[in-house]
Specification:
Elements lengths: L3 E7 L4 E6 L5 E4 L9 E6 L4 E3 L8 E5 L3 H6 L9 E5 L4 E2 L4 E4 L6 E3 L1 E7 L8 H4 L3 E8 L2 E2 H7 L3 H4 L5 E8 L7 E6 L7 E4 L7 H9 L9 E3 L7 E3 L4 E6 L3 E9 L2
Parallel strand pairs: 6-17, 8-14, 9-20
Antiparallel strand pairs: 1-2, 1-5, 2-3, 3-4, 6-7, 10-13, 10-18, 11-12, 11-17, 12-14, 15-16, 15-19, 19-20
C-alpha cells in the first residue's frame, strides 16, 4: 500500500504531520512532508489523535467544468481554457466531519474531485515542469450551494461557506492516470458520479501551469481539478462518500446550521 501522509491533532491540541501505518498508529514528522519533514521516533496510537484535513493551504484553487459531461449537464460546452475560482481556506473540512447546511441555501450539491497538493513555491512554470511540482494527491468534495450560485451569477458565496471543502483523509504520492472517481450518497450501491480522471478536459499538469501564470503557488496549496457529471442535491443527515482508486475514500455528513 502507498504511504499515507496525514495531519493530526493530539489530545493536547498540538498539530503534527505524520505517516499513517496499517495498524492506525501515526509516525510523526518534524515538518510538513513537502518541506522535507523527517520521521521522528514518536508514534501516536489510534486513540491519541484526531484526523484533520491533510494540509493547511494558503489557498484552495478550484477548477470548474473540467469534465465534458459535467459541462454538458451545466448547459455549456467545455471551456476553452481552465475556468478557475477560489475557495477560502476556512472551507477546509476533515474526513468524517459534518458539512453545515447554511440557512441561506435551499439546494446543497456534492462535487467529488481529485485534489493536488503543491510541493514548491512556483510562478509561471511550463506544463512539462508542473508534474514535478505536484507533491501528492488527495480527495475533495467541492460542496456548492447551487441555488446561490445561480442567484449570484458568480461562485464565491455558493462555494465559500465554512465546512464546504472536505479534504482527505490523507495524501498519497502517486495515482494511476486512469484512476476512477466515484461518489455515493448514504447506502446506495450505485454511484451518483463515476468517471476516470483521464477524462479531464485539462490535465493536472496543465492546470498547475495555467494557475501559476496568474498567482504564485506555495508549498501545501491545493488545486481541486473539477468534478465529473452526476452532481446532485443533498439533504440534512445525508452521508456522502467520494472514492478515488489508489487513495481511498472521504466521507462526510450533512447537518443543519443552528
Amino acid at each position: 500500500m502507498a504511504q499515507r501522509y496525514v495531519r493530526v491533532k493530539t489530545l493536547e491540541n498540538t498539530i503534527h504531520y505524520g505517516l499513517l501505518q496499517l495498524n492506525r498508529t501515526v509516525t510523526l514528522l518534524d515538518a510538513p512532508p513537502w518541506l522535507g519533514g523527517k520521521e521522528l521516533e514518536l508514534e501516536l496510537e489510534g486513540d491519541q489523535y484526531e484526523l484533520l484535513a491533510p494540509c493547511n493551504p494558503s489557498k484552495i484553487v478550484a477548477v470548474g467544468k473540467n469534465y465534458p459531461l459535467h459541462a454538458e449537464e451545466m448547459g455549456t460546452p467545455p471551456p476553452e481554457e481552465p475556468l478557475i475560482f477560489l475557495k477560502p481556506p476556512t472551507t477546509l473540512n476533515a474526513h468524517n466531519k459534518p458539512i453545515i447546511y447554511p440557512k441561506q441555501s435551499h439546494r446543497l450539491d456534492y462535487e467529488g474531485e481529485l485534489a493536488l497538493v503543491i510541493s514548491d513555491r512556483i510562478f509561471r512554470i511550463a506544463p512539462e515542469e508542473a508534474r514535478s511540482k505536484i507533491w501528492g494527491y488527495t480527495i475533495a468534495n467541492d460542496i456548492t450551494a447551487r441555488d446561490l450560485q445561480q442567484k449570484d451569477e458568480q461562485w464565491t458565496r455558493a462555494k465559500g461557506f465554512d465546512t464546504f471543502c472536505p479534504l482527505g483523509p490523507w495524501i498519497v504520492r502517486e495515482i494511476s492516470v486512469g484512476a476512477i472517481l466515484k461518489t455515493f450518497v448514504n447506502d446506495e450501491t450505485d454511484p451518483r458520479q463515476s468517471a476516470s480522471i483521464k477524462e479531464m478536459v485539462f490535465s493536472p499538469e496543465v492546470l498547475v501551469s495555467y494557475i501559476s501564470q496568474i498567482m504564485t503557488l506555495l508549498p501545501g496549496d491545493v488545486i481541486l481539478t473539477g468534478t465529473p457529471s452526476g452532481i446532485g442535491a443533498l439533504q440534512v443527515s445525508d452521508r456522502i462518500r467520494v472514492e478515488i482508486e489508489g487513495i481511498g475514500h472521504l466521507e462526510n455528513y450533512i447537518i443543519l446550521e443552528t
